[in-house]
Structure formats: C-alpha cells, structure tokens
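Predict structure. Chain length: 406.
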Amino acid sequence: MKKLFVFFYIVVFCNLFVYAQSGWTTLTSGTTNYLMAVCFTDENTGYAVGSGGIILKTTNAGTVWTEQTSGTTYSLLSVYFIDTVTGFAVGDYGTILKTTNAGTNWTLQSNSTYLLTSVYFTDVSTGYVLGGDINYGVILKTTNAGINWSLQASGTTNGLFSVYFIDANMGYVVGDNGIILNTNNASADWTVQTSNTTYSLYSVYFTDANTGYTVGGGYNGVNTESTILKTINGGALWISQISETTNPLFSVFFSNPNMGYAVGLNGTILKTTNAGNNWATQASGTVNGLNSVYFIDANTGYAVGDGGIILKTTTGGEPTIIVSNTTKDNNLKIYPNPSDDIFTIEFDNHSNKAVLISITDLSGEIVFETTCVQKKYFFFRKALNPGIYIVKILGDRISYGKIVVK
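Prediction complete.
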C-alpha cells in the first residue's frame, strides 16, 4: 500500500507545481506597536489594542485596520465588547476606557494606578477587571456599566492576568505562580484552586460549566516551558496536558467544545480538535510573540502580537495544498526520486542570480531553506524523516516546484 501511495504522488504530481500554503496569513496592521489583545463583534468588525495606547479597528474582516483615538499613551492589555457598540479596554496605570459608539470615541472610566490586565462582562451592566500591583491581586467589579468600580477581596498577593465567567455567578481568574481562583457568587468571595504548577498562567477559557483550560509557562532556570491545564469538573482537579512546545503560551480560545487554539512566544500556535487531549503545532509564519487569539467561527480566527503583527486564518489554521499546471516545472529536475540518501536538484536559472531553495512538508512547515547561484544543488536526505516533501525554487522570474518522496 505504501508503494502504491508513493507511486500515485510521483505519477500525478511530478510535472505539477505543488505547494502547501500556510493556514495563517499576515495582515497589514499599519503599526509596529505590540498588540496585546484582539476581539471581534461580528464577522467583519474587530478591535486590537496594545502598547502606547493603540486601538485598531477593522470593518472589513481585517483587510484594513484603522487606528482609533484612545486618549491615552498607556499600554492597553485587554479589550472586550458587550455588543456591537459598547466596549471596554484596560491597561497600565489603572486605565479603563469605554466606548458606546463602536470605537469612535473612548472615555476614561477609572483613575486608579493598578496594572490592569483583563476585562470581562457578564451582562450590559456587570463587569470585572483584574490585574495587580507588587503585593496584591486586584479584582474590580462594576454593576453600572463602568460608571463605578469597587475593589473585591481576591485573597491573593499574586498578580492576576485573565478572567472568564461561565454565567452571572460562576467565574475563574488565573495569574502569577499558578494561582487559580474561582467564585460561585459573582465575586462575593473567591476560592483558591490547586493548579500543581508554579508557572504563571496567562489565559483561561471555559467551554461549559465543567470544562475549562488555562495556559501559561515560565523559565525553569535552563529553558522556557509551557503549561496547559484542563479541568472537567469545574476546577476541582486541573490536569496537565502535553503541549508540544516549550514556549510559554499567552492566550487560549475555543471555537467549539472540541476545537481550541493557544498562542505564545516565538510565533507559537497550537490547535486541538479533541478537547485538549492532543495539541498540534501550526505554522504561523512568524517568530514574533503572539499575545492573543480570537475565533469568530470554526474556521475564521485572528492572532495578534509583538511588532504589530496580525495573523488571520479562514481554514482553522490548516494549510491549503495548491496544485498548479505550469510548464515551467519542466525546467526543474529532481533525481533520484524517491531516494533514501541523496538527491540532486537541477533547474534552469537564466538570470544567474541567487535563488531560494525551500523544502516544506505537507503541513507547510519549512524543514530546509538555502540560497543557491548554481543550477544544481545536492541535498542529503538523511536530514529528513520519511515522508512527502515539496521542493520550491523561487527567484527572479523563476517559480518551480515538485514533490519528492523519502
């Protein structure tokens, strides 16, 4: 069966230009400010906030992002919209901003000095903001749509980073040193849950009253490490998941009970399709840290991060295999194919300029890349695991591609 499969690929694709297009594409944000949070109110309208008080808005599904007047230069770390017109953004030095006209105007709601990291509303009037200072985990609550905010008794000295409410009464908060807090009475009191980690937890998300996830990570003195925890009993027990990365994770979001995403350091994107039992890496196309991820449906999502990067997917992050009939590929020869040892890449290069030789797997992940001026390149296949790979040659008026098999 394996020989038949290999033969099929060689016969069908040997004269076609075949490549895997990444499931995530980079959008033009118009800024290099760090973007710390993103949310959407419908399929077209979304907001991103970040350093320097920047607020970006799109009304065409991310094609164009326009900077809003925030009225502050303090960094904004979280954004939340109650409906299509009313939203809040929070950040450094106690900044709480509110808009009632879909971002046209933002007004300051608070003048505290706390670092505020997350905002969440359970209805049009009741909302929560959290954060912390050196010795105090801050939770603020409003019951009048942000006109007044009252300090709640968090019971912790750990800084707090993320809040999520399942309903009007039941909520969760996570933060420094693995702290997880739970309330069942709309913040009248908070109970510490056992996380069994001392790493910071940066984001929390629940898919129902019992099932929730929190992600984070830290530095163990030698390397960075990531953390994914899951509960299926409302936090009575949190179980560590295998994350497939050592990069700390900063945001987690589920588009349905089974399908979830986590993003983090060095452009890390993880996806699960079985409610967190397994997490697989996706090719993001960037090494910039990703700080927030948001999906509007099962396929369409956005991630934002350092340097103003904004990524979008319309395929659930899965790569698209592109097959193109092109006679140019007759100018590319790869032999022997299949091969277990070494193969030769030979191609026409009329310009005599350097070309890019790129080898990707079928997920779109680059496994080898180099530049070459010569018309022939020898590649040692021992560096590859057995499988099917796509060789691309890109240069001045040159675009070749073929599949190779090891």
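Summary: The chain has two domains: 25-311, 331-403.
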